[in-house]
Amino acid sequence: MLQELLGALRPDDAVLSEEAADDPARLTASRVWIVDPLDGTREFGEPPRPDWAVHVALWADGDLVAGAVALPALGVTVGTAEPPPPPAHRPGRSRIAVSRTRPPVEATAAAGALDAELVPMGSAGAKVVAVVRGEVDAYVHAGGQYEWDSAAPVAVARAAGLRACRLDGSELRYNRTDVRVPDLLVSRPGIADAVLAAVAGAR
Fold first, then answer.
1. Cis status, amide bond into 48, omega within 30 of 0
2. Nearest alpha-carbon partner for 186 in 172, 198, 197, 200
3. Which residues lie within the region annotated Disordered (predicted)?
4. Cβ–Cβ under 8 Å, residues 119 and 108
5. pLDDT (0 to 100) of residue 90
6. Cα Rg of the chain (Å, integer)
7. Is residue 33 classed as helix, strand or coil in its secondary structure?
8. Domain annotation for the chain: domains and CATH numbers
9. What is the Cα–Cα distance from 137 to 55, expressed in whole angstroms?
């Protein structure tokens, strides 16, 4: 459905999707939609789990310029058109979202340094939305993803005033020849530097 809509509404734009063959023409296109129609397949197959998502982002002229993440099981969609305000600081221990199946050692190190609680979740989109909504304070991922896993969540996080970067603090880049994204941090600005320092110490 997403492919058909984009083809009808934006026929001159390129599309990079998990569910379609990669067309190298996107590398020279000025506008590229980066789409993951179902992020969190395992969670989708375990109803009533809500931590699966739909990702749609627009890369244009060298950067992410728009994006939306839908959590259909919760009836929630967050996007860059009307970004939520930055989350308020929560009282109590910090909480760091991590993979349900492979929480990285970097997250464990950050949790130890910040006396934080690790919170396993499914979809990358669900984890980032949890940071956007103030349910957790950060999301730490290592071990590899693909551009469609993080493009829309990162666009939304940036619009909401969150820090989104690689685990070495460098900029995230999209619409590249190699679509792998090795690692990711999305965090409230107030603890981002502490998380990055803890990760650096663990590497």
1. yes
2. 172
3. 80-102
4. no
5. 74
6. 16
7. strand
8. 2-79 (3.30.540.10), 95-202 (3.40.190.80)
9. 21
